[in-house]
Amino acid sequence: MVLVKGKQTRWTHLSILLGTFFAILILRILMSLSLVKLLQSLCQLICTLEEKNMVSILHLYYARFFSHFLHDLGLIPTPEPFVNLLTQGMVMGQSFRFKSTGKYIRPHEVELKGNIAIHRDSGEPVEIQWEKMSKSKYNGVDPEAVLKEFGTDSTRLCVLSNVAPKTDRPWSNDAFIGILRWQNRIWNLVSEFVKQKKLHTSSQTTNTAELKQIDLEIHDARNYFLLEVSFHMNRTFLLNTAISRLQGFTNALRKVSDDSICNSFEFERSLAELVIMLYPFAPMFASELWSGLASVASKNINFQWSSGIENQKWPEVDENYCPPMHVKVNGKDVFDVRLPMPYNKTGQLTTEQALTLVKKHQDFDHLIGSRPLLRHQLNIYENYKVDFEISIADKKLKKKQRTNV
């Protein structure tokens, strides 16, 4: 038996050596054929790293070990196998267990009396926790039941909203309330636009000055929210923040009166782009909205109305858009200052120029006045936003501290 085991071990070692040899040979052939692009690092790795699950952690070590090994041999151009790593959180379920024994019980066996949970039969105190879903803890949720009740798009929006991808999410159907209300607001917004378009006639006149002011406000809101959504989807991966900005964009468009939506070029463009930005999160819902918009669309707006929403280009920020600079005093947002330059040239702004713009604002004298500036700092996030932080001596805070002493 010992000899047989020894033969099997030798054959195992031989197979590993042969496999490694042929792998290196194939890689050298790829390199010789100038197929380096096939061996570039992955742009994004999405995985879950649980503390108790060593397999999910070890596979990262294995990937980095082999990548560094092949890079040292000159077979691949980069040592790291992944450019970015996103560790997503877990969906947590509400579990119930006895405080005395720690035994888990089913949810229907628990009775809630205010903030206190007890066992229905024995009256024994029950502890409520949010934990990883497990059959043994009776805190799992059937995905098919959720999809059947709320639909695929609403469920996807609920999973992605409110909580950052890296954070654990306590699962509750109460989160669907806000999502369903938002979807209803978008549906009513598009429905009202289609209705007004069909009722509108070319003989109806509008106030030109009022319409121009509405277009300016929508233009500003459109570019602001587009910058926010694009930034968080492409760079921070905070999809919950992107959805929150889409909700803010929806509220901004709902402020436009019914008499103006038919004649406003910016409103129609912004409404169509809102639906396009919604498409990655709720494709079927967005497709229905797009069909309604396409039925009454204006030809002077540059969209492929005859094609589906999946063929539309992602919106771009207008080159003439001048973003606001957010001013903070002692860590609190106080006012915004409109910059005199486009968003893609904010990198040319200096601290002295920014301070001059801040001092010219109408609220500067009221909030700061003649008090000395202890510190001021300009923060520029390229192609995104600009912040200006000011620190001053807070007289109210000092007076309060003296009183307490």
**Can you tell me the overall shape?**
globular
Q: List how many beta strands DSSP finds.
A: 12
What is the overall number of helices?
A: 13
Q: Separation of termini?
A: 85 Å
What is the rounded Rg?
Answer: 29 Å
What does this structure look like?
Helix 3 packs across helix 4, helix 5 runs parallel beside helix 7 (239-254) and helix 6 (208-236) runs parallel beside helix 9. The protein has helices at 2-32, 54-72, 143-150, 152-160, 176-199, 208-236, 239-254, 258-261, 265-278, 283-294, 351-359, 364-367, 395-404; strands spanning 42-47, 82-87, 91-98, 104-105, 110-113, 116-119, 125-132, 169-170, 324-329, 332-338, 373-381, 385-392. It is built from 13 helices and twelve strands. The strands form three sheets. Strands 3, 4, 5, 6, 7 and 8 form a six-stranded mixed sheet that branches. A four-stranded mixed sheet has the order 10-9-12-11, with helices on one face. The chain has 405 residues and is of the alpha/beta class. Helices cover 47% and strands 17% of the residues.
What's the layout of helices and strands?
Layout: H1 2-32, E1 42-47, H2 54-72, E2 82-87, E3 91-98, E4 104-105, E5 110-113, E6 116-119, E7 125-132, H3 143-150, H4 152-160, E8 169-170, H5 176-199, H6 208-236, H7 239-254, H8 258-261, H9 265-278, H10 283-294, E9 324-329, E10 332-338, H11 351-359, H12 364-367, E11 373-381, E12 385-392, H13 395-404
Helix pairs in contact: 3-4, 4-5, 5-7, 6-7, 6-9, 7-9, 9-10
